[in-house]
Write a structure and sequence with these properties.
This protein has 121 residues and is an all-beta fold. It contains no helices and nine strands.
Amino acid sequence: MATEQNLTNISLLTGSDLSTKQYYAVSMNSSKQAVLATAAKNCIGFLQNDPTSGQTATVAVSGITKAKITDTISIGAQLEIASGGTLVNLASGVAVATAMEAGATGNIISVLMLPNNGLYA
């Protein structure tokens, strides 16, 4: 079962409706708003709540968080962002997290956020 530990969170206004994107990877746009992260890019963190457009997003930026996956993941796998802000096995992008448990497409698993998951706008 996915768990969270030692999270450091920040608050950002949302740049779009993220009400169905809890535990997805998010980036920050040029207006300093939380938006869904895009494939093969770094992220600022993982959404912890379910805000609509213009509401405050709680974003975990370090620690062990829950994350939505769209791949078959093994414990210890390096993960990158897929289209739509979910995580998949590292192929050609930037590793943003390490899997702390195994899972299958559609699951939410625990991941350790890597310190190099800095922002790409």
